[in-house]
Fold this protein.
Amino acid sequence: MKNTNYEKEETKNHSTSRLIPEGELKCVWMTAGLVAYKLCDQEYNCDFCSFNESFLGERNFQTIGDAIKNHEDRIKTVKLRSPVNNLDEFGIEKTLAERFLKGLFDFKIEKDFLYYEGHTWVKQNNGHVKIGIDDFLCKFITKIKHIILPPESTLILQEHPCCWIAGEFGTVPVVSPLSGYIISLNQEVFENPELPIADPYGRGWLLRLKPLDFEKEAESLFSSEDAIIRFKKHSFILEQLVIRELLKQIRIHGRSILEREKTTEGLMEVIGHKRFFDIFLTTFTKLHC
C-alpha cells in the first residue's frame, strides 16, 4: 500500500505541472520548493538571472582552494583506454586531439558506496542514507557559485532533481538516486560551494535522506565495479563529442592551440568555456534521463 504522504506529493506534483505552460521551464527555486511559482526565462543560466541574484541576497560564498585529501585505501582511480584506434580516419589531427585529452577523463570512485545513473552516490547509515555527487561529474563542473538544495523535511523522488549546482556558465540539475524525506543538509556546501569538487566522497556530501523504500529502489543502484563499467561508457561518449569540437578548433586556429596546459581548464580554454559546458550538460542530461 502506498504511503499517504507520497500520494499527496504525487497529486501536488501533477497539479503543479498543469500550471506550467507547455515548453516552459520551472525555476530551480520553485522545483526545490523554496518559491511557490516562478518560470525560468534564462534556460537555467542562473548566473544571468536577476531573480536568482535577488533571492540569494548578499550571501558571500567562499572557496576552499586546495583539494582535501581522500582516503586512498578506499578510492579507486579509473583510467580510460585511449579511443584513438577507432578514430584513425581523422589522421594526425585526431591523434593530437586524443593526446591532449589523455588522462582528463579519468575519474575516482569510492569502493564502498552505491551509485546511480545520474552520477550520484549513496552511503547507508542506520536507516538513513547520505547522498553526494561522484568524481566523474565533479571533473566537468568548475567555478561553482552556489548550490541549491530543498529544505529539510522535503519529500524528493527518485529520478527527480534533488540539487542544482550553479556554475559560471550554467546550472546542472542533480537527480536523486532514491525517494525519501530530507532529514539534514550539509551546511558546509553553502559556505564553501566548491567543497563537492574538492572532496566529493567525504566532506562534499549534499544531504541525508530517510528512504521510503530502500530495498525496492536499491535495484536501480550499482556497486562501484558496475558503476565503473557504466561511467566508462559515459566518459567515452563525452570524449568523442569533445574530440569533434577540438578538431573544429584545430582547423580554425591551427595545431598550436593544443600547446596549452593539458588540464580540464586548458581544454575549456581551447573549446570555449560556455561551449564545453553546453556539450557536457547536453550529454549528461541525455545519459541520465
